[in-house]
Amino acid sequence: MSIVPVILSGGSGTRLWPLSRALYPKQFLALGGEHTLLQQAVQRLQALGHRAGTMGAPLLIGAEGHRFLLLDQLREIGVQPAAVVLEPAARNTAPALALAALAALEDGGDPVLLVSPADQTVGDTAAFTALLAQAVEAAQAGQIVTLGVAPTRPETGYGYIKSTAAADGGPVRRVQAFVEKPDRATAERYLAEGGYAWNSGLFVLKASAWLAALDRYRPDIAAGARAAWAARKLDAPFVRPDKAAFEATPSDSIDYAVMERLPGDAQAPAPLVTLTLDAGWSDLGAWDAVWQVGAADAQGNVAQGDVLFEDSQNTLVHATSRLVATVGVEDLVVVETPDAVLVADRSRSQQVKQIVARLQQSGRGEGELHRRVHRPWGWYDSVDAGPRFQVKRILVKPGASLSLQMHHHRAEHWIVVSGTAEVTCGSSKRLFSENQSTYIPLGETHRLANPGSIPLEIIEVQSGSYLGEDDIVRFEDTYGRNSADKT
């Protein structure tokens, strides 16, 4: 049996702002523990190993703007992906899974897909792996398996799966219905009645089963995905489906497009079943969920970073760059980053996405980027800015280089803090070491590279009439970016 882990990594995580942002969303964050949520998702699926068949390399479906982050995070845990399929536009999870299924069928087989969002956490990996092995067996037998989560409270932020016990008394239950996010009273009734589980967004199924179900219930999505896949372009390890065809594909979720329609359909291409997961699962969909899975003190407070609590209860504080202290507060969320601070009633943390929407409507950058911006060559941190000047702290990875470029509106002064800088300026190329500096005149072609084996760190002082990131004309780039590419 061939098994392919599929990681869906197209989410934006707006309810975890200001830590999660559009170009650095929550799946790339380590929200407690050593590894990021994306890395945890990959390791969790790979933990199944060869228990149930031949485990292939993971297949990632993500956004174009996240492509270098995806590769960097896999590289950090020593994983080489089978491919990274880049969605040309956001079209929700049903078209994304169609692309994954088409990619998995390329070798001529019909593998079982282990489908997981990139932004969840599971406390008990052993229990998760054992359940996954059962799900693979059911999927190999022709069933579509969804993993439901044993509910621990009347949660209104999740959808629910209603199921009935199997005739043989086994763990595989037949799904009767998918139920949308309920109000509080309905959620309490579900918990009291039993037979309901939270919808985890985790699925195990054959690639052909997904495409057959999509052909039956949403042939427009299936046709759009096939057209986009047929006209794809390869740029290993990236696969780029056709932009026009994919943009013309309707947007829908796996649940709405297929899963809600399978129960009760006598002509369904495959039966829909569920296994109940009891392994400390959370989708970390909002700050309240982060508080729930955090390590709380005796007063119910959860802290990350430099935090002091005084006479405070049931409060989450996440500090990234400075000391945060609370006095006499209860049921709050406080999240501090270098350029934004969130203070919210913990019970209303789902509404944080409305703040992000207002930031986007007003054209403010705090919804898109952190002050520290990650690039394939490293990162830069905008330390200070004012009229006609900007100061950045820049780190370049060993062996990496920025593009050969020029600016129409600004000059730059570079001071090496640590490491060795190879600087191309016009026709000259020179090496600069710690405490040395150089000047890049306005309009001059230039490149910064790190030829050494340790990170290069510099301070960049920009001066000029316009200092926006779109004032970059690229002539050559190691990472295949052009002037319009802001990653």
UniProtKB/TrEMBL annotation:
Q: Where is the MannoseP isomerase/GMP-like beta-helix domain?
A: 311-359
Q: Which residues form the Mannose-6-phosphate isomerase type II C-terminal domain?
A: 363-477
Enzyme Commission number(s) of this protein: 2.7.7.13
Query: To which protein family does this belong?
Result: Belongs to the mannose-6-phosphate isomerase type 2 family.
Superkingdom assignment: Bacteria
Q: What keywords would UniProt list here? A: GTP-binding, Isomerase, Nucleotide-binding, Nucleotidyltransferase, Transferase
Gene3D superfamilies to which the protein is assigned, alphabetical: Jelly Rolls (2.60.120.10), Spore Coat Polysaccharide Biosynthesis Protein SpsA, Chain A (3.90.550.10)
Q: Which InterPro entries does the UniProt entry name for this protein?
A: GMPP_N, Man1P_GuaTrfase/Man6P_Isoase, Man6P_isomerase-2_C, ManC/GMP-like_b-helix, Mannose-6P_isomerase_type2, NTP_transferase_dom, Nucleotide-diphossugar_trans, RmlC-like_jellyroll
State the top-level EC class: transferase
UniProt xrefs under SUPFAM superfamilies? Nucleotide-diphospho-sugar transferases, RmlC-like cupins
Show the catalytic activity. alpha-D-mannose 1-phosphate + GTP + H(+) = GDP-alpha-D-mannose + diphosphate
**Listed GO biological process terms:** GDP-mannose biosynthetic process; polysaccharide biosynthetic process
Show the GO MF annotations. GTP binding; isomerase activity; mannose-1-phosphate guanylyltransferase (GTP) activity
Q: Where is the Nucleotidyl transferase domain?
A: 5-298
Q: Which organism is it from?
A: Aquariibacter albus
**Entry annotated with the keyword GTP-binding:** yes
Report what the protein is called: mannose-1-phosphate guanylyltransferase
